[in-house]
Design goal:
With 165 residues, the chain is mostly beta strands. The protein is 10% helix and 35% strand. Strand 7, helix 1 (99-114) and strand 8 (127-133) form a beta-alpha-beta unit. The radius of gyration is 15 Å and the shape is globular.
Length: 165
């Protein structure tokens, strides 16, 4: 991180009513995953020590679940990591989080979740894409009736710089 002090994790990992801490091995960098047979590598959803998926509490108050990270071979900006999250509270019908609040949540996910999971050695991504959907959808699938948000960022030291699409 070019000598920058590691920022505190903005996100709280929540299981039920209790909070847990999650950290990366500083030497290993990003989580490992298996080749999926496509141009991307899939990383399994965040789970606690017992293998139970965990929810991430965000500044808006919504809780999202990390679905996967795709590590593309190439994108318009070069190597791209895509962090995908399930966010039921963004639904058009019955959702409780506005599009404006989602912007702050996505910045928090990039700064506090994605950046700490980038590799410390080897190729680093030029672009990070944070995506939220109110229902699980296959990557790249147009799914009418599902609310989805996407934002692109560039790693910039200890923060993510918004790039926009």
């Amino acid at each position: 991180m070019r000598g920058a002090t590691r920022i505190g994790l903005v996100l709280a990992l929540v299981i039920g009513t209790g909070a847990i801490a999650q950290d990366q091995d500083a030497d290993s960098g990003a989580d490992s995953g298996a080749e999926s047979g496509t141009s991307a590598e899939r990383v399994e959803a965040a789970k606690d020590a017992a293998g139970v998926p965990v929810d991430l509490a965000l500044p808006s108050g919504q809780k999202v679940r990390w679905l996967e990270t795709l590590r593309d071979i190439g994108g318009p900006a070069g190597l791209t990591y895509r962090f995908r999250f399930l966010a039921p509270a963004i639904a058009k019908k019955g959702g409780t989080v506005s599009a404006e609040a989602v912007q702050d949540d996505m910045q928090a996910l990039c700064d506090g979740f994605a950046l700490p999971r980038l590799p410390h050695q080897g190729p680093r991504p030029e672009e990070l894409v944070i995506s939220l959907s109110d229902k699980p959808v296959a990557f790249g699938a147009a799914t009418p009736g599902v609310t989805q948000y996407f934002e692109a960022y560039r790693p910039d030291g200890a923060t993510c710089a918004w790039e926009g699409f």
